[in-house]
Design a protein that fits this description.
Layout: H1 2-39, H2 43-51, H3 59-71, H4 75-88, H5 93-105, H6 109-122, H7 127-139, H8 143-156, H9 161-174, H10 177-190, H11 195-203
Helix pairs in contact: 1-2, 2-3, 3-4, 3-5, 4-5, 5-6, 6-7, 7-8, 7-9, 8-9, 9-10, 10-11
């Protein structure tokens, strides 16, 4: 009796392993096909391949479907999948960066800003996000907030062209011309061929 029970357990285990391997193979094949579809700009075909193996608890599938639906310009669907990915991996920065794409395409800038600030609670020194938050505040003419975020980038990368150029523009907005010249000159030193910065300096 014990031997037959043991044999049954072994048989069931082998069956489960075989099924798991088969499912893993299907997922790998679906991802491979989705990459091929994306490279050919056949986004619907790429999406359908992944939907065939969809698992609501799979972070990678939800993340990938978020990206493919964004490329297909199905922005609301894209957001949905990215939100699922974020729920599965609450500290994921890549899912939040992904979520920003369809959200920006929908021009929901308050949500974009909130998502960036959410990233900064996870990674306060993320230079990409600090720069982008600073730029949003600059665009909104909230120069004090813009200065705070862009200055943080320059603490880490003092010779960064984009950040020096943006901080120069922020100081112009604040009416601080001497400070603006300082940062514009740093940007021009980085890129002496920049007509944009040279013109900005002339206007000062």
């Amino acid at each position: 009796m014990k031997r037959s029970t043991f044999a049954l357990v072994i048989a069931m285990t082998i069956t489960l392993i075989s099924k798991a391997q088969t499912q893993d193979d299907k997922i790998l094949s679906a991802f491979s096909s989705s990459y091929l579809g994306e490279s050919n700009k056949e986004y619907l075909a790429a999406i359908l391949k992944l939907e065939d193996v969809y698992d609501a608890n799979s972070y990678s599938i939800n993340l990938r479907l978020g990206w493919l639906n964004y490329l297909k310009k199905e922005y609301t669907k894209s957001q949905m999948y990215y939100k699922k990915a974020m729920a599965l991996e609450p500290k994921s920065i890549e899912a939040r960066f992904g979520y920003v794409n369809p959200t920006a395409a929908l021009q929901n800038w308050d949500d974009v800003l909130a998502t960036y600030k959410d990233i900064l609670t996870i990674d306060p020194n993320n230079t990409i996000v600090n720069y982008r938050v600073g730029y949003i505040y600059y665009y909104r003419k909230n120069y004090d907030e813009a200065q705070k975020y862009v200055s943080k980038v320059l603490q880490l990368y003092p010779f960064d062209y984009d950040s020096n150029a943006l901080l120069g523009a922020i100081y112009v907005g604040q009416g601080k011309i001497m400070e603006a010249k300082k940062y514009y000159k740093l940007a021009l030193t980085y890129n002496p061929q920049s007509k944009e910065i040279a013109e900005a300096l002339k206007k000062l």
